[in-house]
């Protein structure tokens, strides 16, 4: 049985604004299973954003666990991310989950993986998923050459560029921001 997966998620921290966005496509093998999946969530009353790539059910489980960690550690994003990554790597059940997360607050942007990684990306740009390298390349160029744009505008344009190139990415975007 094939899993539903494939997406592009990108986050940019720019001029005191964080924007996190994703396309809406979910694929099963080489078929589009759904075109309007919501892969970005606002947590902690809008103070934290989380986006996922990978198996949808696995990602929902991880976002729920991350939110529990946020609550347990008083909204401390880095601490919650590290604790989730440790649990994800060592727990027999969680270890089998196939997804990645980008989490963000107004101050921090992190990528969390099941291998125990919690990465603070260069240039304050994070991207995950099948179209991540396309979106990340576009985001780096926009941040460098069009700094007058907002973080939200950069995320939207990066995702549109990725959707023009990556067959697993579409133009149905969801973008959340924290200003």
UniProtKB/TrEMBL annotation:
Active-site residue list: 7
Keyword Electron transport on this protein?
no
Which reaction equations make up its catalytic activity? ATP-dependent cleavage of peptide bonds with broad specificity
EC no. given is 3.4.25.2
Report the enzyme's class at the first EC level.
Answer: hydrolase
**Mainly resides where?**
cytoplasm
- Report activity regulation: Allosterically activated by HslU binding.
Q: Which GO terms describe its biological process?
A: proteolysis involved in protein catabolic process
Keywords from UniProt, A to Z, are: Allosteric enzyme, Cytoplasm, Hydrolase, Metal-binding, Protease, Sodium, Threonine protease
Query: Belongs to which family?
Result: Belongs to the peptidase T1B family. HslV subfamily.
Q: What does this protein do?
A: Protease subunit of a proteasome-like degradation complex believed to be a general protein degrading machinery.
Q: What is this protein called?
A: ATP-dependent protease subunit HslV
What is the source species? Larkinella arboricola
Its organism's taxonomic lineage begins at:
Bacteria, Pseudomonadati, Bacteroidota, Cytophagia, Cytophagales
């Amino acid at each position: 049985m094939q899993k539903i997966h494939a997406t592009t998620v990108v986050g940019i921290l720019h001029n005191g604004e964080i924007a996190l966005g994703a396309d809406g496509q979910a694929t099963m093998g080489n078929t589009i299973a759904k075109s309007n999946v919501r892969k970005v969530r606002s947590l902690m009353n809008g103070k934290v954003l989380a986006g996922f790539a990978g198996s949808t059910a696995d990602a929902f489980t991880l976002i729920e666990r991350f939110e529990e960690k946020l609550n347990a550690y008083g909204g401390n994003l880095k601490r919650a991310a590290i604790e989730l990554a440790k649990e994800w790597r060592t727990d027999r059940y969680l270890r089998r989950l196939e997804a990645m997360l980008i989490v963000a607050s107004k101050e921090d942007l992190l990528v969390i993986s099941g291998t125990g990684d919690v990465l603070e990306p260069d240039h304050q740009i994070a991207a995950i998923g099948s179209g991540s390298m396309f979106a990340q390349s576009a985001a780096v160029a926009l941040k460098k050459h069009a700094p007058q744009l907002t973080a939200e505008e950069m995320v939207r344009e990066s995702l549109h560029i990725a959707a023009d190139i990556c067959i697993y990415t579409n133009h149905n975007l969801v973008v959340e921001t924290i200003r």
